Structure formats: structure tokens, C-alpha cells
Amino acid sequence: MDKPWLAQYPAGVPAEIDIHQFASLKDVLAASCTRFADLPAYQSMDTVMTFCELDDASRAFAAWLQKVAGLQRGDRVALMMPNLLQYPVALFGVLRAGMVVVNVNPLYTPRELKHQLIDSGAVAIVVLENFAHTLEQVITATPLRKVVTTQAGDLLPVLKRLLTNAVVKHVNKLVPPWQLPGAVDFRHALAEGRALTPGDVRLTHDDLAFLQYTGGTTGVAKGVMLSHGNMVANVLQVAAWMSPSLQDGKETLVIPLPLYHIFALTGALSFFSKGAQTVLVTNPRDMPAFLKVLRTSRFTAIIGVNTLFRALLDAPGFADVDLRQLKLVVAGGMAVQKVVAQRWKARAGVPLVEGYGLTETAPVAIANPVTVQEWSGQIGVPVPSTDAAILDDDGNAVAVGAVGEICLRGPQVMQGYWQRPDEDAKVFTRNGWLRTGDMGLMDARGGIRITDRKKDMIVVSGFKVFPNEVEDVLTMHPGVLEAAAIGVPDARSGEAVKVIVVRQDPALTQSQLLAHCKLHLTGYKIPRIVEFRSEALPKSNIGKILRRELRDGGAAATAPVAPMGAGKAAARAAR
């Protein structure tokens, strides 16, 4: 097929990447830890872990999983923690043991956690003890056999570790009481593993690396099967795309997004492959602490979402952050707003480089060249070894400049949805194109612009919210007759969840409904706007609620509210 976008590639960026450079992420780890052994790999809470130290710790955890926990190749291991040094140790330990990582949002409610653990078949979990009480509520209904708990300061120097853990638990009281009989302390697992030698598991591109949960284009959360080949491809694609701006072993990346999110995960792995130091931000909503990290780390790159960059620009202390060494700022996960892009360029002197992808594409598939100087409103062009097309509902290409569905092919495209071949059939065309669910157009030079979302998915600060799930929770309340959830524009989060509710109980109040939602939904899924209606919601001839009609009808907001628990939930992550 024609690839007009190749003419927009900066000098040095290849049209194709060699996926066979590495057989697996385990090989990526080995190569980086050998080449950059004494350089800092990760930093958290002012503590640095070198590539060599990461290699040793992850090797110990792999040995413990294999020879103490008794897990086998292909077993699924859940990771439920924010950005701490324990995360990369556990991540690489699981992968080098030949097992599969199941990333879990630590702010999940018991209902959400139970679904993911059962669906993935996870047999082990590493959980920050701040969230162990959530696991306690559902563990007997899951296939889990091994639980490893960790405290926020576990991998810090001894005095700082003791102080940090004491403050988190006894001063800030961020650890609710929990009981998980048989749980193993993370530090104890590492100590046992260091006395053992892990088995050398030979992995290939076909081996599964991650079950990364998403709603895909429809329905409840599904496990996206990302193989080692998918992940190696995207790591190499992103690394090649960044090459005009970055030097191996010379960069410092700030990661304020949670590593359990695919955008942050692959971004961090790509920088890792180039020997960069990655500074982990545990709680970016703690703006004073976040600004302190930015002032002291002398970072050369940062990745984030539109809402994060806006929050930084609005923060009083951001004016004091030295950005003279900044080379690259990447924005993804949601659309970049023009006003944010313009303000950022004026403040930092470097543009927000916008990219696009899906969990199903590991995730980067389209991006603006890192050499761009101004925001264009486009999501960019396909990255190396990636094809993009704008197709109609029958899978045929539309004319240049015409609107259709953005479809993708490339080595980073998922293997499919975990145990859901019916869903695979919905998203792949006969010719192997992945339907993204996003409508857009491509110009004559291969630049792509998103025009609308084909499905009803809502994106709040880069996180996907699925109306079916919100509506299911709403209708669990005995006072609700029927309900619909839609996305509405929001200046800070891009979109916010709005719900339109017909009451069964006329006395049902907004505060009662939101308190109910708080019990069953993570903070970013909780409605920001509630509208009560007395008449029935519009429906199709088969009884399906017409969400698009509700959106297009301009349903007026009657009661904007703060998302109950969102701020507190974020604060529960260890500082």
C-alpha cells in the first residue's frame, strides 16, 4: 500500500524496525542492564536504583516465583501498586520467570478487582498494603494462591524505609486494617530469591507478556493479549521515533502517569531500552510533591495527558521549575487541547508532541514527529512498521480527506482479547485491520485527524469509562428506574461522565446516588453531572437507550458535582 506519511519522517527515523533484535522483553532487560549497568534506571522518593541493582532484584523475584511460590511458565501474576521502585522489580521478575503480568488499578473497588482477577485467572498478586483491604474482601472468590504485600518504603535505604512506612501507616493513616493469612512480605520474598538461581526460560515473540485490561470498543473490561513480540515491537518503534531528540544513556524521564496504564508502561520501557533514568511520581495529584520532583530531577523528557499538563500550568509553583534542559514532551491518552498546547509551548519553549494509540496496539500507533514545533490538531502519522487506513463500515478505503474509521495494522497490534473470540471478530476486518472505534480522516501527506468517536466510550483524563458499566451500577440502586451515561466536554479532564436518571423513588437525591456510585466505581468513573428526568429516556424500537440522542439533544446539566472520593482516593496512594 502507498505510505505517503514516510515523507514526513525526520532524518534518522527508519520506515521499518527490526523486531528480531530481541526475542522478548526479557532480552530487552538483559541488554539494557548489561550496557548501562552502573547508570541509574529508576528513581523514587529521592532513591536511585541502578540497572545492575534492578537486574539483581528482578532476578531474585523471578527465582522466588518459580522455586518458592511454585508458579509455572504462563501463570498470570497481578500487580496492584502505584509508581514505586517495587513495580519495575516485580514487573521484570514476572516477565523473566516466563509468567504474564496482569496490571491492576490499585484504586479499583472490590467489584472491579474481583472481575479482573477471576477473568484473568491470576494465581498470584503483588499488592501495596494500602490496598490490601480491598483484596481481602474478594480473595476467597478468586483463583489467587499467593499474595505478596509490600509497603511504600520497602526498597528505600533502611532509615528512610522505616520512617516512610511509619508515616504512611501511623501518621497519614493510609493503610486500612487488613488480614490476608499466608501473605508474604515483598522484602522477604526477595531475600529468599537471592539465595536461589532462577530457571532460564526461553521466550519468543509468541509468548504472552501482558493481559492489559480495557473495554476495547464495547462492553465490560476485557484482557488485551499483548505478546512479547507486540511489546518488543512497540518499544523499538517508540525508541526509533524518539531518536532525533534523545541520546542513549543521557536522558532523565519523569513518569507521573501510573505504570499500570499502557501509555506510561510502554513509554517507560522505551526509555529504559535507551538507558534513560526514569523518575517515578507516586501521586501527581500531590502538586507540591510533584513540583519538588520536577525542581530537583533536571529532567529532559516527560510524558503525560492533557489534564496533567494543564494542572502543571495552573500550579503556582510551576513558574519556578527550570525547563532549560527539557527536550521532549509527549502527550497521549486523550486529545490535547489547543489552549493547553499553546500555553505549554509559551512556558516551556518545547511543544507537546501528541501521539495516539490503544491498549490493543501496545499502545503507540500514530504520532507527530518529535521535531514538530507547533500543535496542529492532528494525531500525527503512523510510526515505523505501522499501516493506517480510513475505512468505511464494509472495510473499504474511503477517499483522501473523507471521514471513516481509523484502522491499523502492525507488529504491535494485539493477539486478541483473552478468551473472547466473539470480541475479536468485532474489531478485526477480514483483511486483518484493527478497527479503532475512532472516526477520522487522512490528508494527502498521511497526516491523520480524529473527528469523532464511533462508539460511546468516554475518556476521562486518558482513562476509559464505559457507559454500560456506569449504567449497571446506577440501576443497582433501588431508587433508579433507568439511567444512561454519556460523555460531556470538560475543561480539565477532556470529558466528564454525565448521567441522566429516571427515578423509581421520587425521594432519591443526587448525594444518595453518588454515595452509591462511590461504593462500586473508581473515582474517575464517578459521574460529575447528574440530571434527573421525569419522562422515559429515548429508546430504539428494540428498547435500547439512544445515548447519541441524549448527547445531541444537549441534555442540560442540572447539578454539576465534584467526583466524590476522587481526590481522597488518589491521596490513598503512598506518598
Structure description:
By secondary structure, the chain is α/β, with parallel strands linked by helices. The protein contains 17 helices and 26 strands. It is 31% helix and 23% strand. The protein has a nine-stranded mixed sheet with strand order 2-1-11-10-12-13-14-15-16, sandwiched between helices. An eight-stranded mixed sheet has the order 7-6-5-3-4-8-9-19, sandwiched between helices. Helix 1 runs antiparallel to helix 2 and helix 11 (306-314) crosses helix 12. It is globular. It starts with 24 loop residues before the first helix and ends with a helix. The model is unreliable at 555-575 (pLDDT under 50).
Total number of β-strand segments? 26
Beta fraction of the residues? Answer: 15-25%
Helix content: 25-40%
How many helices in DSSP terms? 17
Overall pLDDT, averaged?
92
Secondary structure elements and pairings:
Layout: H1 25-35, E1 40-44, E2 47-50, H2 51-67, E3 76-80, H3 86-96, E4 100-103, H4 110-120, E5 124-128, H5 132-138, E6 146-150, H6 158-171, E7 184-185, H7 186-194, E8 208-214, E9 222-227, H8 228-242, E10 252-255, H9 262-273, E11 277-280, H10 287-297, E12 301-304, H11 306-314, E13 328-331, H12 338-348, E14 353-357, E15 364-367, E16 381-382, E17 387-391, E18 404-409, E19 416-417, H13 421-427, E20 434-442, E21 448-453, E22 458-460, E23 463-465, H14 467-476, E24 480-490, E25 494-503, H15 510-520, E26 529-533, H16 547-552, H17 566-571
Parallel strand pairs: 1-11, 3-4, 3-5, 4-8, 5-6, 6-7, 10-11, 10-12, 12-13, 13-14, 25-26
Antiparallel strand pairs: 1-2, 8-9, 9-19, 14-15, 15-16, 17-18, 18-20, 20-21, 22-23, 24-25
